[in-house]
Amino acid sequence: MGTKRYMITGGxxxxxxxxxxxxxxVEPDAELLVVDKLTYAxxxxxxxxxxxxxxxxKADISDMDAMRAIFDDFSPTGVFHLxxxxxxxxxxxxxxxxxxxNIVGTFVLLECARELWLAEGATPGRFLHVSxxxxxxxxxxxxxxxxxxxxxxxxxxxxxxxxxDHIARAYQRxxxxxxxxTNCSNNFGPYQFPEKLLPVIIRNIRDEKPLPIYGDGxxxxxxxxxxxxxxxLKAAFDRGESGRSYNIGSENEWTNIDLVRLLCDLVDQELGxxxxxxxxxxxxxxxxGHDRRYAIDxxxxxxxxxxxxxxxxxxxxxxxxxxxxxxxxxxxxx
Length: 334
Ligand SMILES: NC(=O)c1ccc[n+]([C@@H]2O[C@H](COP(=O)([O-])OP(=O)(O)OC[C@H]3O[C@@H](n4cnc5c(N)ncnc54)[C@H](O)[C@@H]3O)[C@@H](O)[C@H]2O)c1
Description:
Elements: E1 5-9, H1 14-26, E2 31-36, E3 55-58, H2 64-74, E4 78-81, H3 88-93, H4 96-117, E5 126-132, H5 156-175, E6 178-184, E7 186-188, H6 197-207, E8 211-214, E9 220-225, H7 226-239, E10 245-248, E11 253-255, H8 256-271, E12 281-284, H9 299-305, H10 313-332
Helix pairs in contact: 1-7, 2-4, 4-5, 6-8, 6-10, 8-10
The structure holds nicotinamide-adenine-dinucleotide.
């Protein structure tokens, strides 16, 4: 078998950087190329543990000429596509970048992959499109999203991801491009830009600042450790069926308020505080179109990809708290 050459878009972001480190560990002979525009959310420092062993191209995935040149030069045998604008609140205040990067960017990559892999005599590669459970909209108190749940996105972010999923699926059905799609629940772990719930809360507890909680705090999210997600992405890449979607989650539902209370306890313990930081909790006006509950049914991933989460939630969360307390200053200067 020839050398594997994997292109990881968004590899300088939260999940992308974790995926790069994971791929280096499990497939050390593969050549890795990170393509990332380095928006506010991307940071080359996240890649430091693997930096000497990978290539990096600073480029915008929605720039067709730049992507064509990269595909021609690197000739990937696989693409792990993670680059996206990812923060729901930013998509509400300014949706344009979400349309450009998430929809146009995905189209450009699919088109480049089609030109390279479906040309006469070419060896086809695989395109893994990484998406979110937010495409399914909001759940009531019962049930969980399966891969057959109709798409019903609420925010400009989730609508842009839903759109990109449809385009990716269309390239498989129309042109026969080898595409696999994953839809994952909320991730936690190292390298998440400190605007998302977990790092924001950990930082504010450290600084004894108010802990903002949307609405009544009873919105439910299904939390998955990023390392388990990366293992699922590799499993979907290796064993997924072309044209199929796989929901990734660890059946670990938490209301926002309970999660924040747990974080207070963990940070207090870590900092040796005697009084509880839970008194800092402060309810703020709810997010527009805020989905009430997300929950993933991961049966297909378990059965067909032979994947199961391995991390214990509370241990992994405690490790994550320690990681941020140690790295806020060095990585983000906060
Ligand atoms: N974080 C989660 O909980 C979660 C859950 C499910 C799915 N996802 C999906 O996983 C992927 C990665 O999410 P994340 O949390 O790591 O996001 P992130 O915001 O931390 O990282 C995104 C990366 O993409 C890069 N990027 C953005 N626009 C680009 C463009 N036009 N060209 C090139 N690079 C660009 C950024 O610089 C950044 O490095 C996204 O597609 C997201 O929709 C995330």
